[in-house]
Design brief:
single chain; 7 strands; 21% helix; alpha+beta; 3 helices
Length: 147
């Protein structure tokens, strides 16, 4: 498999077709694909952190990582995202997994480390009403190793 650049439109189309529980994203800093002779087999989308406390200008977040089930695809994507983010001058790369539904084996395979458990909660508040679409269960926070 090869690591290749991909547009946000193309990456979001792949996410819409293959992601188990999240819709496409609105924006990104960059997106990467893994492909072979059969075409695109997986994508990773990297953008600003969702949590305002982490949005310091030096941190990026993997907001989507999605494959069609190709072996080692997610690990390749997490590794490529880490290399690209640090090459661009960012100092930190994070992502989240669902604590009860996702093992994190692809992240561990790419050298990432689990650093915290975050309580699941609604983003809907009286001051900013929202419709909850993502899963509200606990999440694990992961961090990529420094380049």
């Amino acid at each position: 498999m090869d690591v290749t650049p991909i547009t946000l439109t193309e990456a979001n189309q792949f996410v819409a077709e293959h992601h188990r529980h999240h819709p496409p994203v609105v924006g990104h800093k960059f997106s990467i694909a893994v492909s072979d002779d059969a075409g695109v087999r997986g994508v990773v989308i990297v953008g600003r952190p969702a949590a305002r406390a982490y949005d310091d200008g030096w941190t990026l977040e993997v907001t989507r990582c999605c494959t069609d089930g190709v072996r080692n695809g997610c690990s390749m994507l997490y590794g490529a995202a880490r290399r690209a983010a640090f090459a661009m001058g960012y100092r930190r790369l994070i992502t989240y997994t669902l604590a009860d539904d996702e093992s994190g084996s692809s992240l561990r395979g790419a050298g990432w480390r689990e650093i915290a458990r975050r309580k699941g909660r609604s983003w809907n508040t009286p001051s900013r009403p929202r419709v909850d679409t993502p899963p509200l269960q606990d999440k694990l926070l992961w961090e990529a190793p420094e380049a």
